[in-house]
Design brief:
Elements lengths: L2 E4 L2 E3 L8 E3 L15 E3 L2 E3 L3 E3 L8 H9 L3 E5 L10 H9 L3 H11 L7 H12 L5 E4 L1 H14 L3 E5 L17 H7 L4 E6 L2 H9 L4 E4 L9 H5 L5 H19 L5 E4 L5 H9 L4 E4 L1 H4 L9 E3 L13 E3 L6 H6 L11 H12 L4 H4 L4 E3 L9 H6 L6
Amino acid sequence: MGEYIGRGRKARRAFGFDEVAIVPGRITLNPEETDTTWSLGDLEFQVPILAAAMDGVVDVKMAVEMSKLGGLGVLNLEGVQTRYENPEEVLGEISGATPDIATQLVQKLYAPAIDENLIAKRVSEIKDAGAVCAVSATPTRAGRFGRLAEEAGADIFVVQSTVATIDHISTAYETLDLQSFIDSMSIPVIIGNCVTYDVTLDLMEAGADAVLIGVGPGAACTTRGVLGIGVPQVTATVDAAAARDLYYKRTGKFVPIITDGGMDTGGDVCKAFASGADAVMIGSALARAKEAPGRGYHWGMATPHVNLPRGARIKTGTSGTLEEIMVGPARTDDGTQNLLGALKTCMGSVGAKNIFELQQAEIVIAPSIRSEGKLMQRTQHVGMWR
């Protein structure tokens, strides 16, 4: 399968969220009677949405609020939360500054070394509030930080890099043996990011409890532009889902896949699940929340899978409370609020009682999905054309 892009060279066609649509079902359901729960190890979540491990998205308070709403916030252990005793002061100073001043501040933001004592403190703050605690680190620090987080009481550990593989070769530094690391942890370990069938299967065979899918689709990520690598999210999710299903058939162990990035609206979220996702990880949509530490900005992300140049700030759009964005009620008509409501309504429209049944929904290639019949939206600047 594929098309010739030149003499003797074929390329496979890949699809993103704006190029497909979900076909309504023959039977419809009351959206309130649909089940959106998903599980990770012994943990069960009512809302299949994770907040990305970005400094501008998740702090302790945001992680706690996400947990209260039934979702999961992932705290970055290599950012401001572990470099400053009182990160709120730093974040508040930057979010309230003019762009020029903010650029200078952000450039200095990551100069202080990580204080490992703050890892246990942040985990304890989240756990003491009665929330599920998920934390993230890059492979180079995962071995050390994973043990510290686990000892402090973390529930989930995420190992996240630009491109995750089982075999990473380097003579300049010691690489992380993912399988040994996972075997040494007594809590679920999520590994990411990848976009191919083979690597998804490799990570599952290494013992990953869940796999993050997505290279370069995020609003703050420049991987595709700078490095030219990545696969559009619909195709990446479909391929990863095929690996998940094969692994389950072989072993009887179900390993969730989490589509990470590229989703800005409820429609994008629904298409991720219809493509095969068991949960989704979101950054920009949740950075709009008034409770988010970035106060509506993406800036100074420390993790390498979000390669936003330090000092840059991107305004993410219409703000709202985290509750409005996650579970409504929506105050906007552009699909950026009440993401769970959108998911449940979509499930009702295709006749899917649960996430698994939504994954079986018919998808069509629809390149005109954003423009067909939208003249009035464009002229009046409403909905997706706001």
